[in-house]
Amino acid sequence: MLSKNQIKFVSSLQQKKFRIEYNLFIAEGNKIVKELLNSSLVVKQLYATSEFLVNERIESSIETFEINEKELARISALTNVNQVLAVCEIPNYIFDIEALQNKLTLVLDEIKDPGNLGTIIRIADWFGIENIICSTHTADIYNPKVVQSSMGSISRIKCHYLDLMTFFKETKLKPQQPIYGALLKGENIYTKSLTKNGFIVIGNESKGISESITEYVTDKISIPSFSYYKSNEGEAESLNAAIATSIICSEFRRRE
Amino acid sequence: MLSKNQIKFVSSLQQKKFRIEYNLFIAEGNKIVKELLNSSLVVKQLYATSEFLVNERIESSIETFEINEKELARISALTNVNQVLAVCEIPNYIFDIEALQNKLTLVLDEIKDPGNLGTIIRIADWFGIENIICSTHTADIYNPKVVQSSMGSISRIKCHYLDLMTFFKETKLKPQQPIYGALLKGENIYTKSLTKNGFIVIGNESKGISESITEYVTDKISIPSFSYYKSNEGEAESLNAAIATSIICSEFRRRE
Prior knowledge:
The structure is a homodimer.
Chain A: H1 4-12, H2 16-22, E1 24-28, H3 30-37, E2 43-48, H4 50-53, E3 63-66, H5 69-75, E4 84-89, E5 104-108, H6 114-126, E6 131-135, H7 144-150, E7 158-162, H8 164-170, E8 179-188, E9 198-202, H9 211-214, E10 219-222, H10 241-254
Parallel strand pairs in A: 2-3, 5-6, 5-9, 6-7, 8-9, 8-10
Antiparallel strand pairs in A: 1-4, 2-4
């Protein structure tokens, strides 16, 4: 049986202010929770059905509550509840700019949609991009929708929230790293030579990369359209931000 | 003022059975509706605020209702209403297999998520793929969530719902077209030679391509992972179906 306080506590973690207050976030679903249990992240509590618990070896350090699906529905952020909800500690990754030298790093300039952000984290994981720098106006990676759509990749990718202007202004890596920016008018990514290191800036879903950040971009890149329609016939205007990210990451990696 | 019957009628189009009964679907939002008004699709009714109508030249054949935002919210399928909702005719595209000769065509084997389907339609539009063949269990392209996430591309891409087994069994194009299948174990798409024509089969979000359809695949392709993690450390298992589609389409087109 769940107490009223437990329901209140777990549900509160759907809100950012309580996630910050407790330094905790929630993750749901068999696949994701199993990944988190096997990751370096710290799981503090498990709320799970007997069906889930019978198949898992749970460490004794994790406070575990066996509940039924009806109770799970009361604390869940999902429409269709699964067998398990985990309460996890928000990790404290130290941002070390030197560690980014010679690596590819994604920079998100105000990605607002939680589904897009989660998908981008999953793409980064697939393409071996360990770090994502998020502008302070990007969605919160511990928003339950982001956690769900990242499909466990959140346990492997380090996201750092920074003021992008200050970051680009003060970043003095030697040798200087290229700053690629995905823009509607840039060099054709298929024919441009790309480095194995540097930053790839992805802009907001509707506004793209903000003007002040575009100034720091050293290499403007574009994904050409192959549409049969001309722009006056209503050609597709743009790709979704996560889709553009995937094509760009694929281009950087396939050449290695 | 909207009558009760109008509210009932427009809202009913959120359900597939009424879309079939009336042969109509709804689209919302300035950008999408403007694209539809300029497309070959037939817009039958517009429910719009004065703000929208003052800036648009609406053909007299379209039944137009000026309403306020509160009324719009009553017929909208969206959480945040926009200035306009359009009721459009479902087009009757004739499926001509000969027309697919020498072209790339996407085949969706049970894409269930409306957001994924809409995104895939947008990708097809960007990469000049005019036709999508959907299995009968794929989400309905006239579902409001699909229409929204396709961002207007729905007016340009022809989707055909077919029984895939029958289709592949009976398709006899000469010369034979390759049938590419996105599978977890296939040839590395980055190094495989790809044709300018054929079918690209994308599988269901969790089950992938069904076994019976895999039998017809002539060329198994995979997107390699560049993850730093090994599979026993919980490497990213797969990419989202729309993400995989975008990377595959990009690979086919960049070589042209």
